[in-house]
Specification:
By secondary structure, this protein is mainly alpha-helical. The protein has helices at residues 2-19, 29-52, 58-66, 72-104, 118-139, 142-147, 151-174, 180-190, 193-197, 199-204. α1 runs parallel beside α4, α1 (2-19) packs across α8 and α3 runs antiparallel to α4.
Length: 205
């Protein structure tokens, strides 16, 4: 699931940058990128919730571990699979767009944007991750799901929308991580010193 998420989302970022070159037409834009990330999360949560819980994100897995809704061995297994899937997804983007464009447009790697401090980037990531994880807990609360029968059906859409709004707020600051596996996958394949030096922001935040 994380492989597909990273492939579609990062490919949207690279594709947008290619389409906004001087010789090309306009690209997806920030709004389109945010909807690509959120839409793919909604689809994948819907498809995988009954199989593996639909985490697709180490931050969600860690939150469920802290809430004692997931065992440590399973959390480690999920996180490892998410990171491996993210690396493979980023590698697929590089294969599709070619090394030249992939390197030229930063490989979709998360970095703190010029004009922002690392502390600001960390705070933005923490806020975005909180929005996502809080929505996951609210949308999957067993008591609420038992009381309101529509909640299980809407949960993937609500989680996806949380990802959209978090991206709209955070893209200008860090490119939006809120998913450590997504950041790691792009950093591994892009292999840039700045992306690596700031990787801790997307794990701590």
């Amino acid at each position: 699931a994380t492989l597909l998420f990273v492939y579609v989302s990062v490919a949207t970022v690279i594709g947008h940058k290619r389409q906004t070159d001087a010789e090309a037409c306009s690209g997806a834009g920030v709004l389109g990128i945010a909807w690509a990330f959120g839409g793919m999360i909604a689809v994948l949560v819907y498809c995988t919730a009954g199989i593996s819980g639909g985490h697709v994100n180490p931050a969600v897995t860690f939150g469920l571990l802290l809430a004692r809704k997931l065992s440590l061995p399973r959390a480690l297994l999920y996180t490892s699979a998410q990171c491996l899937g993210a690396i493979c997804g980023a590698a697929m983007v590089r294969a599709v767009h070619g090394a030249r464009y992939y390197e030229l447009y930063g490989g979709g790697a998360n970095e703190v944007s010029p004009g922002y401090s690392k502390a600001g980037g960390l705070l933005a990531e923490a806020a975005g991750t909180f929005v996502l994880v809080y929505t996951v807990f609210s949308a999957t609360d067993p008591k609420r799901m038992a009381r309101d029968t529509h909640v299980p059906v809407l949960a993937p859409l609500l989680i996806g929308f949380a990802v959209v709004v978090a991206h709209l707020a955070t893209i200008p600051v860090t490119g939006t991580g809120i998913n450590p596996a997504r950041g790691l996958g792009a950093a591994v394949v892009y292999n840039n010193s700045k992306a690596w030096s700031e990787q801790w922001i997307f794990w701590v935040g």
